[in-house]
Amino acid sequence: TYLFIIKCVSHLGFNLFLFNLCPQIDDKEFDIPQVDTPPTLESILSELEEEEEPFLLEDTCMLNTDNIDAHSCDTSSLASSDSGDPAHLKRKKKTMDVNTTVHGSVLRHSLLKGISAQIVSAADKVDAGLPTAITVSGVIVVGTSHGLALVFDTNQALRLCLGTKTTGAEFGAVSALTINHDCSRLLCGFAKGQITMWDLANGKLLRTITDAHPPGTAILHVKFTDDPTLAVCNDSGGSVFELAFRRVMGMRSCDSRCLFSGSKGEVCCIEPLRAPSDFRDHPITHYSLLAMASLTKILVIGLKPSLKVWMTFPYSKSDPSSVPQLAWQFVPVQKIVNPILAFCKGDTVHFLLVKKEESGTIHVIKQRQLQISCDIISLSWINSRTLVLVDSHEKLQVLDRPSQEVLEIMDLEQVQLVYNSRHFKSLATGGNVSQALALVGEKACYQSVSSYAGQIIYLGTKVLVENRRRIDCLLKQENFVEALSLAWSFHEGTAKAVVGMFGDPVKRKGVVGDKMVEILFQFTEHALRKCPEQGKIQVMEQHFHDVIPVLVDYCLLLQRLDLLFNQLYARLVENVVAKGVFLELLESYIVADRLGHLTTPIMRDLLAHYHGNGMMDSLERCIVHLDVTSLDIQQVVKVCWDNQLYDAMIYVFNSGMNDYITPLEKLFAMIGPPLKEGRSLTDEEVVMGNKVLVYISCCLAGRAYPLGDIPEDLVVQVKNQVFEFLIRLHSVDSSEEEAVFPFIRTLLHFDTREFLNVLAMTFEDFKNDKQALEYQQRIVDILLQVMVDNPDFTPSQVGGLFTFLARQLAKPDNTLFVNRKLFDQVLEFLCSPVDDSRHTERQQVLLELLHVGSVVHFDEQRLLTLAEKAKFYQICEFLYEKKHLYDRIIDCYLRDPLRKGEIFSYIHNLLSMPGYSPEEKQTVREKSLQRIQVWTCMTISQKVFTYFFLLTHKDPNVKKYHHSEATAFLLEKKGDVHGAFTVLLEFSAFCNLSTYMSFDVCTFVCQDPVYGRGKLSEIQGLILGMLDTFNYEQTLLETTTSLLNHDLHWSLAHLHAAVTRGLHPRQDHCNICLQQYKRRQDSAEEIIVFSCGHLYHFQCLQQKGCGWGVSEQQQQWSCYKCSSSQGGRAMPTTELKRGRSTSLAQVCACKERKNFRQKDTESVSSFQNWCTMTVS
After folding, report:
1. Residue 348 and residue 316: Cα distance in Å, rounded?
2. Cα angle vertex 215, ends 212, 216, to 5°?
3. Do residues 132 and 251 both lie within one domain?
4. Between 20 and 30 A from 242 (CA), which of 419, 670, 988, 1096?
5. What family name appears in the similarity comment (predicted)?
6. pLDDT in tens, 894-947
7. How many of the other CB atoms lie within 10 Å of CB of 279?
8. Mean per-residue pLDDT for 1108-1119?
């Protein structure tokens, strides 16, 4: 009985299927014929099978010729055995006939629920990870993605759990497993290159091997040999190493020796010859043979007694993605049992018989090959006659080697085999493998298949089979973006129609996250492979612009920056265009604060790329958003200073070193000297000066520059440091000629107003901070000391200082102390009538002082005198209002050009609002009547406001002021709306500016809300109705005129074309006399051609009486033949008149003379006369 175990490991449930050859064979079922005398075992063993006729490879130069004797060389070649041997052809035909035999089912399977349930439990409860490798040898060992090895006995009980998740985090996933002959030792290979040895009796870790092969490569295979102290391993670099285990004085060690270097061709499969217990004494075992399959050939070497190559065999042409397979089996041939190596790459299985002669020579004899129509991805023996294959479509085939029959085919697609692609691509160590090895790895499932004692175990994944198929379907269509989007919806639990997901979000995200990482690697490889090698650089850049943002987005979503920067970027760097696009696209993520930390290599490449391509602005934007711990501060500061990246330099000093003063010192050193010398600043220096002002403002306000906030524990310290810096008496490198307070002087000379604005904003926050108030007073004292009586500053600059001080003193919570004498100077300056600069601002500042009562100690009369001289009419209004002299305020409004139009609103409000005494209102009325002549000189809009005044008084003698507008207003008030409008129209008719004034009145009436209420609304409605009617009639007139002009133009153009069109007579003779129209050569006869095509002599037509008219010039003609056919001779006058245009056009167009040029001139002349008549 042969037991086949197919283990389907799911991310949700791990299903172990048991396939088992039927233990009792039914003769009838298998159609076995009856025999009289059954053959003996000896006769069977001595029988020579057809397929085992020995012959050697044709290419003997690839073999070790020292070990091939003469007898072997006389055998058939590979070519002759395949193509020229009739017996071979006969056997092929026979095989096709036998294939029709029905064998029934030779396999049965059962589910190993115990192991499946425990793997699920381990993954769910202790986060053991997903299964990645399996091996069988008395026990079943399953390796996981979190570095654990689960050991089960034959009763499906979990015996050991080897390793920890800490080990898995350090070493990576288990990538290879092997057990020695006596099932006492277990070797585990890991994705990051380490190897561990375990004692299966007690679960003790015996060895951790970290230096057996070059670092940075994954372990693809690790295999024990028959010698328990000897093992071999194969890494993702394609190299093969021998591991010799030693124990000296209780100390365990491991010596490594390179058997084959990947630089000569990567090896992707190894298989040592391990003899069953019955053949341990076989002479071939003394050589410790090892078969190795590279991408181009098969090698068989002996490890003992010394390293020796016994055979090399090159592949025939095959698909580069085909996976090489190796499998040893001891087979009885001619009473002698010798090992046969089965190997394949593609769809052909080759068999090599290896035997040893008494002389010690090893012969390698090629057996008959087996051809199948599929790409093989797994090859295993279950006995000396039967093999089990798995093709790329995951179809399991059981084949009988002697007859080359397929005994049974089973679909393993539901099992979903685990593939070792991640390890072949060495993703855990950066993906540093060749493209050829990575391509083979797409179908590699070496660690998912293990055979032992006639049993084969297949490790599969039934992960959310339906969910995963949805993703795989998109991947097959190369829709990587859609596949990632779907996977992310699984990751977040937002996908629809989900089957079998983990309930635990952490587990679900772990499973889907691993799948997304795999898709990202596939997408990267696909992008690099599909990138056009030639063509416009823009096309290549666009290609990667469509790919790289997707990679970055999903790495950020998965929080896998290590994947993005260490592995994906390492692949993209191989393409120069992809590298540039990647680095440039990082800017948007950095500026958006989605990416704040870069690795040192990435930052180095970023600086080099941006600097090399002149993208300094982009570089600065990136630096100020990055975590300073990822920056080389010295290099960045140098780059920033050399390229005037002042924002980035300030950010590095502030965030990286908590130094807020050094940037100020560097910037002042640049802008100070030119300002001191009086030179004009360059654009670069102006930019630096502005940055200094903004930087100082941010520091004093507790904000970081250029963005963010200063840490709370540093806010006060930074403020104090900046204030101390500003009030320094001298700079660090000062000379004897340097004036005191150089930094404040520099800022005042650079931009006095903006510097004072910065101080003003800073002082707004100084309320309860005693230290800050002291700095405030100190700054003000220094400003006064530096600027007052200093010829270096213009009066405008000094005025800006006084304005600043006045605003500070006007604050209710002002704590500044200013000398009284200085305050007098401020007041004198603000009210100076000589200086007209910033007149409005100075008046506003003084008005603020008056409102807060800071100058009550001044003589109000003196202040009023100064205000009148300075034309501060708002100040005068303030003082008059304080004294209740409202009539004088009217004069202030009339004198102030900016507020002259507001006089009427002021008067209306004063007279209509409560709070004023009748005497005060009467005074204002009288003052208004006295100033009415001034109002007559105002614009019409201002006059209209007088209506409010007159409305209040209803003065019947308003006509004496010759105010038609006022008269109309009073008429309207009486209810005579039409009379009021008539007065306005009469006034506009006799006024020199009637048009303008009427328009002004109409505009005001239509817009003023007063005319929208009551009877006043009738005037507004009347005007708006007139305007609407005017607009309608104007549009109608324009449309009618346009249509008439168009019709007239068309008619005239048509008539002109008809008159000037040439006529073609139907014949060349007169239709009356039937003679040629040119009867004599010297004749000057006239002819007449009509539009109907008939031609006549003038005399003939005249004789027939077909013409009429007063004179010859005005005579009209009709066609004789046409008029005869219509029953009349000539057209009457009445008919001519009714069809005047038609008749005239016909005559003008038909009448021709021999002198065509003269006749044409006459026609045009008659046409122009007609046009003139028509127009008139």
Report:
1. 9
2. 140
3. yes
4. 419
5. Belongs to the VPS8 family.
6. 888 888 878 878 888 888 888 888 888 888 888 877 776 555 555 444 444 454
7. 15
8. 71
Question: How far is residue 560's CA from residue 512's CA, in Å, rounded to a whole number?
Answer: 14
User: Are 439 and 584 members of one domain?
Assistant: no
Look up tokens 């992960």; give the residue.
463
- Distance, CA of 135 to chain centre: 46
Cα–Cα distance measured from residue 53 to residue 365, given in angstroms and rounded to the nearest whole number: 9
Q: How far, in Å, CA of 904 to CA of 893, rounded?
A: 10
Q: What are phi and psi of 739, to 5 degrees?
A: -75, 160
Contact predicate 72/365, CB 8 Å: yes
Q: What share of the chain is helix, strand, coil (3-state, %, to 5)?
A: 50, 15, 35
Are 205 and 318 in a shared domain? Answer: yes
Q: With bands split at pLDDT 50, 70 and 90, how would you rate the model's confidence at 15?
A: very low
Q: Which residue has the higher pLDDT, 126 or 1034?
A: 1034
pLDDT for 336 equals 84
Backbone torsions φ then ψ of 1131, nearest 5 degrees:
-80, 125
Position 363 in a domain = yes
In a domain, 763, yes or no: yes
- Same domain as 620, residue 677: no
What's the sign of the alpha-carbon dihedral 608, 612, 615, 616? positive
Distance between CA atoms of residues 291 and 302, nearest Å? 9
1062: tokens are 């040439």
Give the integer Cα–Cα distance in Å for 1140 and 1133: 10
Q: Which residues does residue 207 pair with via DSSP β-bridges, in sequence order?
A: 197
Q: For the chain, how many structural domains are there in total?
A: 4
Distance CA 1103, CA 1086 (A): 14
CA atoms of 1066 and 763, how far apart (whole Å): 108
Helix axes 576-591, 537-545, angle to 10 degrees: 50
Over residues 269-279, the mean pLDDT reads 89
In a shared domain, residues 581 and 674: no
Instruction: Count the helices and strands in the chain (H runs, E runs).
Output: 46, 33
Mean per-residue pLDDT of the chain: 77
Residue 68 pLDDT > 50: no
Residues 601 and 662 in one domain: no
Range of the domain at 975: 961-989
The one-character DSSP state at 140 is: E
d(CA 151, CA 133): 12
Task: Decide if 639 contacts 611 (C-beta within 8 A).
Answer: yes
- Give the CA dihedral 805, 807, 809, 811, nearest 10 degrees: -150
Q: What is the pLDDT of residue 71?
A: 33
Confidence of residue 1123 (pLDDT cuts 50, 70, 90): confident
Residue 57 has pLDDT above 60, yes or no: no
Shared domain for 246 and 347, answered yes or no, is yes
CA gap 410, 1118 in Å, rounded:
107
Question: The tokens of 520 are what?
Answer: 């990202």
Q: What is the largest CA-CA distance in the chain?
A: 157
**For residues 922 and 23, what is the distance between their CA atoms, to the nearest angstrom?**
131
* Amino acid letter for position 1059: V
C-alpha to C-alpha distance for 675 and 479, rounded to whole angstroms: 63
